[in-house]
Amino acid sequence: MALRAEKFDKVAPFFNGQRPFGPPEAVIFAAVKKIIALLIRYVPRKHLLRLSAVGLRVVGLFYAGNQVECPVCRHTYRKFLPYGRINPRPNALCPSCLSLERHRLIWLYLRERTSFFQRPMDVLHVAPEQCFIKAFEKQHGDGYVTADLESPLAKVKMDIHHMPFADRSFDVVLCNHVLEHVDNDIQAMTEIHRVLRPGGFAILQVPFFAPVPDATVEDPTITGAREREIHFGQDDHVRKFGKDYAGRINRSGLVAQPDSFAKELQDAARYGISQEEVIYKAVRAH
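Given the sequence above, the corresponding structure tokens read:
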């Protein structure tokens, strides 16, 4: 049954003024897509983290099924929720644990390609993702430290440019979708190098926007939200990473080890993972 025309005025703001006629499922999907886009674009992240979990679990009831599976929380759905600020990506967000495509990829990578889940480690998690915290705490106990300048989920409040940790404190550092926000990404990665133990590794995912430039684009004179969105892809980004990202990692003293692990995943579609995403692992050699 199509959405009745006389009720359109109540929902019109969510559809850019276009009448959302069609099957109820399509109407619900369009509404969810629009609402999520508005929330993540205009609600500060520190508030969104606390408010989103319960509401999205309720929305998840409408997505019951077994076509996709989240490897983090093991819940299954017909599809994942859409997610994105401007052009929401379909099949992206797990309603249960709030994992996105990159989180599910990182989880599988840590499980399949590292010893992360095989023994307790000292782990620093910068800007901790909600979907990981309970599992990582269970695995690593007191050795698992979360840190961020603003996140209410973090145990330690810190500036990534000047970490309050001794040299060689951690076996692993997780720092995903952070370096596009900080004043100096090279200095931040140099700090990560400092606090890692020799042989330790970091996972340093960043967003890439097509077309990916040859060299990273940054300009400290661009400060307006709209201008940053145009030049860097999002209004709170201060750079747009290019094909030189691995080289920037190497400048910090870390050794970049890009890994196309996603291309080897036979169940990538079921896990809602893009096989084009590269894992940026970085190692402290000595």
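Helices lie at 8-11, 24-42, 45-60, 101-113, 130-140, 185-195, 225-232, 245-251. Try to locate this feature in the token string yourself.
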